[in-house]
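Dear H.,

Thanks for agreeing to be a second pair of eyes. The structure we're designing against is below in token form, covering all 490 positions.
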């Protein structure tokens, strides 16, 4: 607000300075014209009196008074029709002629200004308590260049002052009109510009009051930053709503799952408390059942912890270089050992040792997520194929299972956080729907791609594509070649 006040003040100062400059320029031009007029009057009087040998009231009157025929070339010429008489008749100008002794011998009007003997012609601006105008003084010489008297022309500048007053009133009137128009235009413009902000503000308040509302900012129909902000805000609300719905659904699922183990444990404890503790067989069965349900509850609690940490997940994408096939072979061998009841197959068309820019643990984490997912949903045909291939720019890894498969509709959603294809069947399999979302985020963070092809009843294929670092790959190939040559020579 303070900054806006300062801006408004500076704009006002600029306007006042502009008007002052214009007013001062016009005033200077008018005063310059009056100064030239005073000089012209002096020249005209001096020219008329050049034929006079001595200055006195009668002689000067014959040459300067309008009712005297002296000096007129035409007796029918109207008084004050020539330039001299016109100047003498101006109501703001007083023309006085003085003798050599300083006595006033002629005056067009009463002159209250004191006379000073001038040595040469002067036209000066005089500002006094009761006078503000121009005074021109000059010696008068006859045709023989003899000094015969003096002339004084006093211009009160009343016409200039009247014009200045008119200009001031015009400027004031124009300023009032301009400010009124600017105020109206500014109000309309501000209303137009602030309308989207008002709409956004009202929408935000309603969303704050009811976070579950489906209300969104309407299309502003503007191609500007506010329209972009509204789109981003709506996207943010949609994303938050999806997260809220997913988390709400997950909490409902966990709550439902917790009811069963708690009820089972409670039932066994009540049975043991009543009579089962005296029967070793019943006691053993109840303890085993309670332990199983406790493990299940532990798994559910862990899932809830994962859910809490998911929003705090920060992935730092390092610039570490990793040989892809070493990681693939390691994870392949680990899963063969962990799941001996599964058949794992690795087909590799990679003949070099490609290097990709990815943190080794991140690549290993992605492969574990995908293989865990394949094992989890391969209930009948326990067979998993891993394949690797390369081209000049990238290396591709595919993980195929022959399990339940995913519908076309669900394929588009499996990478969403907390999404599980079949919640009823996923309860026994565990998981909270975060794995594939994390895998996608990791791969895309290293400028790679991850995709899914699936068919219900036939299984799924996850494909990973990572760009090859040619420089590091060539360096690695050179090192391996050098080692091989040394080994052969040895």
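And this is the sequence the design step returned. I haven't edited it by hand at all.
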């Amino acid at each position: 607000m303070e900054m806006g006040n300062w801006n408004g003040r500076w704009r006002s100062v600029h306007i006042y300075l502009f008007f002052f400059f214009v007013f001062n320029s016009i005033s200077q031009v008018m005063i310059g014209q009056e100064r030239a007029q005073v000089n012209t009057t002096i020249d005209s009087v001096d020219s008329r009196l050049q034929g006079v040998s001595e200055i006195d009231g009668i002689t000067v009157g014959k040459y300067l008074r309008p009712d005297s025929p002296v000096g007129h070339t035409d007796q029918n010429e109207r008084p004050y029709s020539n330039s001299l008489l016109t100047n003498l008749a101006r109501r703001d100008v007083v023309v006085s002629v003085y003798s050599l002794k300083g006595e006033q011998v002629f005056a067009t009007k009463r002159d209250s200004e004191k006379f000073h003997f001038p040595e040469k012609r002067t036209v000066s601006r005089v500002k006094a308590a009761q006078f503000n105008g121009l005074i021109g003084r000059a010696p008068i010489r006859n045709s023989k260049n003899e000094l015969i008297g003096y002339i004084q022309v006093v211009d009160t500048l009343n016409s200039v002052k009247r014009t200045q007053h008119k200009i001031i009133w015009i400027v004031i009137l124009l300023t009032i009109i301009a400010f009124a128009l600017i105020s109206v235009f500014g109000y309309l413009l501000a209303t137009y510009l602030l309308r989207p902000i008002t709409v956004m503000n009202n929408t935000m308040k309603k969303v704050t009051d009811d976070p579950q509302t489906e209300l969104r900012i309407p299309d502003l129909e503007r191609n500007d930053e506010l329209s972009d902000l509204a789109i981003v805000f709506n996207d943010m609300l949609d994303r938050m709503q999806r997260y809220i719905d997913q988390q709400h659904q997950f909490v409902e699922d966990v709550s439902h799952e917790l009811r069963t183990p708690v009820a089972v444990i409670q039932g066994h404890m009540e049975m043991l408390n009543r009579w089962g503790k005296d029967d070793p067989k019943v006691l053993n069965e109840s303890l085993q059942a309670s332990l199983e349900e406790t493990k299940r509850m532990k798994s559910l609690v862990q899932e809830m912890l994962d859910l809490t940490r998911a929003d705090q997940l920060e992935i730092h994408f390092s610039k570490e270089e990793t040989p892809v096939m070493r990681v693939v072979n390691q994870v392949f061998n680990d899963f063969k050992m962990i799941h001996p009841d599964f058949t794992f197959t690795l087909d590799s068309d990679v003949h070099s040792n490609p290097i990709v820019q990815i943190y080794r643990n991140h690549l290993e984490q992605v492969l574990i997520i995908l293989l865990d997912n394949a094992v989890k949903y391969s209930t009948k045909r326990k067979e998993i194929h891993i394949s690797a291939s390369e081209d000049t720019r990238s290396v591709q890894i595919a993980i195929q299972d022959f399990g339940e498969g995913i519908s076309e509709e669900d394929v588009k959603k499996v990478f969403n956080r907390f999404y599980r294809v079949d919640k009823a069947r996923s309860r026994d399999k565990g998981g909270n729907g975060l794995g594939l979302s994390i895998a996608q985020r990791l791969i895309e963070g290293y400028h790679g791609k991850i995709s899914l092809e699936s068919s219900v009843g036939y299984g799924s294929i996850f494909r990973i594509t990572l760009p090859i670092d040619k420089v590091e790959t060539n360096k690695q190939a050179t090192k391996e070649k050098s080692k091989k040559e040394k080994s052969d020579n040895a």
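Two observations from my side: Residues 417 and 434 are 5 Å apart (CA to CA). The radius of gyration is 53 Å.

Warmly,
E.
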